[in-house]
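Project outcomes to date are best conveyed with an example. Our students and postdoctoral researchers have been running inverse folding experiments weekly, and each run begins with a structure described purely in tokens. The record below, which covers 476 residues, was selected by the lab manager from last quarter's runs and is presented without edits.
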């Protein structure tokens, strides 16, 4: 092949990807594997988007913007980590520690009974809930098993609270048990989250099998997980342009023709946008975005905030790897380890953190310490060496029933008015139609879907199958 022809082939195989978060990385890796030439344009100077790390000048250490947790059922995310060669950097935790109102700690862990009974004995032992409350939980779990995945679709358009009320769950059980799990998993309380996602959390993580509900926590800073992406993409002839902000997508008629950056236009016939809906609205020409069924409802998406709080303590106060604070305003505590000087790093997470966004850092730290003192009173006597709160106001889109039908598919349709959707434009990002709430798994699924729409092949990896008893009872 002569040079000009090689360049022509490379241009034809080029896919410009706007955004280097998980959706963009996932799309690029799959496209690179399939012989395409991915070119990621990322406005920040690092990869990872909302799941990344930064160097904190106060403590001198690299911190994640917030602890990111996955579960065994996140099969596409694990597939991506496998392709990046970093799956062994995830530590898996079978046992979950729950702080009760009385300051005691319950441990929830699977046992050898077949799914869906593998958590049943542990749940029975939990002192968080009394006998009547446990009966209520069993009733709703049984309903979710019996209805299977198809049954949850009948709850489209309604909230998870509607479902819980239908299963005669009391306010206490909703507050202490269901909301404790749902707020962390979906970043919305049961009164707001779509029932399909609330039910999905239990059908796909808690009930089908032992590994599905195991919690995965990276044991390196998040951004290190993405380091191998560069060589995979470059070996395919692609590039990652950091610090490159896309200002607009250019069209000839209704087909993509270019991507305009601060440094000038880049010719492009195939573009994947992975940016959140509000950003996409800014880079699409006004005259066009209402004419594509996928982008006509971008303003329908609302966001929900998350607050992460890093604390560096002079002495260790706990050996527990984590703590779930049932029914409390602070939802999780993660133990990030002890450094060579014996100082402990704890990280607290507050999901659906609307009420915290206007608070000062001092007030936030004060409240978090008060909450942690319920489990570890000695925190009050320990010197706080450094504290850092990270407010993510637009942490995730709000997966309410209202937006379910508005989440766009990856590829353009050729049907419809004006000759169909905008050709050459593919959409990804956790807010797209992945069947998942806003999660890393959802983001990776969206990237894989976009790559498959371009390839006409590939796509998602298999989900975990429920165990035989769970299947027999109707879980699938
Ligand atoms: C605080 C917090 C805690 C979370 N905790 C969890 C968790 O525990 N578990 C979990 O599964 N999920 C969690 N999530 C959600 C998860 O981080 C996201 O769902 C996922 O990272 C979204 O990836 P994405 O690629 O779709 O979007 P993004 O990560 O937002 O990626 C989009 C990228 O596009 C870039 N970009 C934007 N505009 C432009 C432009 N004009 N030009 C070029 N680039 C542009 C952005 O800089 C960004 O890098 C959390 C999120 C937050 C914020």
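After processing, the design step wrote out the following sequence:
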């Amino acid at each position: 092949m002569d040079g000009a022809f090689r360049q022509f082939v490379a241009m034809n195989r080029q896919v410009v990807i706007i955004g280097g978060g998980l959706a963009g990385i996932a799309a690029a890796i799959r496209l690179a594997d399939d012989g395409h030439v991915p070119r990621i344009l990322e406005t920040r100077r690092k990869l990872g988007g909302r799941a990344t790390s930064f160097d904190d000048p106060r403590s001198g250490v690299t911190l994640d913007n917030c602890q990111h947790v996955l579960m065994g059922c996140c099969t596409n995310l694990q597939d991506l980590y496998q392709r990046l060669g970093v799956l062994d950097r995830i530590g898996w935790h079978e046992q979950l520690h729950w702080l009760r109102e009385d300051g005691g700690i319950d441990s929830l862990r699977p046992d050898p009974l077949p799914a869906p009974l593998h958590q049943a004995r542990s749940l029975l032992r939990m002192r968080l809930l009394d006998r009547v409350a446990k009966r209520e939980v069993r009733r709703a779990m049984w309903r979710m098993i019996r209805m299977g995945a198809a049954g949850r679709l009948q709850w489209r358009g309604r909230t998870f609270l509607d479902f819980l009320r239908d299963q005669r769950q009391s306010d206490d059980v909703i507050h202490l048990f269901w909301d404790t799990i749902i707020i962390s998993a979906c970043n919305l309380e049961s009164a707001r989250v779509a029932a399909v996602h609330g039910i999905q959390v239990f059908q796909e993580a808690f009930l089908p099998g032992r590994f599905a509900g195991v919690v995965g926590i990276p044991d390196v800073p998040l951004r290190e997980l993405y380091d191998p992406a560069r060589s995979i993409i470059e070996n395919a002839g692609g590039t990652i342009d950091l610090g490159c902000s896309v200002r607009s997508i250019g069209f000839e008629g209704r087909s993509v023709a270019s991507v305009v950056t601060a440094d000038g236009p880049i010719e492009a016939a195939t573009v994947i946008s992975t940016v959140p809906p509000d950003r996409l609205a800014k880079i699409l020409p006004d005259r066009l975005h209402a004419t594509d069924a996928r982008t006509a409802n971008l303003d329908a998406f609302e966001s929900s905030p998350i607050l992460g709080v890093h604390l560096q303590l002079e002495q260790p106060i706990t050996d527990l790897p984590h703590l779930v604070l049932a029914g409390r305003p602070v939802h999780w505590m993660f133990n990030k380890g002890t450094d060579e000087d014996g100082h402990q790093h704890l990280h607290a997470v507050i999901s659906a953190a609307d009420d915290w966004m206007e608070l000062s850092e001092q007030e936030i730290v004060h409240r978090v310490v008060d909450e942690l003192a319920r489990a570890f009173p000695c925190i009050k006597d320990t010197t706080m060496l450094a504290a850092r709160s990270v407010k993510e106001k637009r942490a995730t889109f709000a997966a309410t029933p209202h937006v379910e039908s508005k989440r766009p598919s990856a590829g353009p349709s050729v049907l419809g008015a004006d000759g169909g959707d905008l050709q050459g434009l593919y959409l990804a990002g956790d807010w797209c139609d992945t069947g998942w709430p806003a999660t890393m798994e959802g983001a990776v699924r969206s990237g894989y879907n976009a790559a498959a729409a371009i390839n006409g092949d590939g796509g998602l990896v298999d989900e975990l199958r429920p165990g035989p008893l769970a299947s027999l009872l109707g879980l699938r």
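The first helix runs from residue 3 to 13. The pocket of flavin-adenine dinucleotide is lined by residues 18-24, 41-44, 49-51, 65-66, 68-70, 245-246, 274-276, 279, 283, 306, 308, 392, 395-396, 429-430, 438-443 (CB under 6 Å). The training component of this project remains on track.
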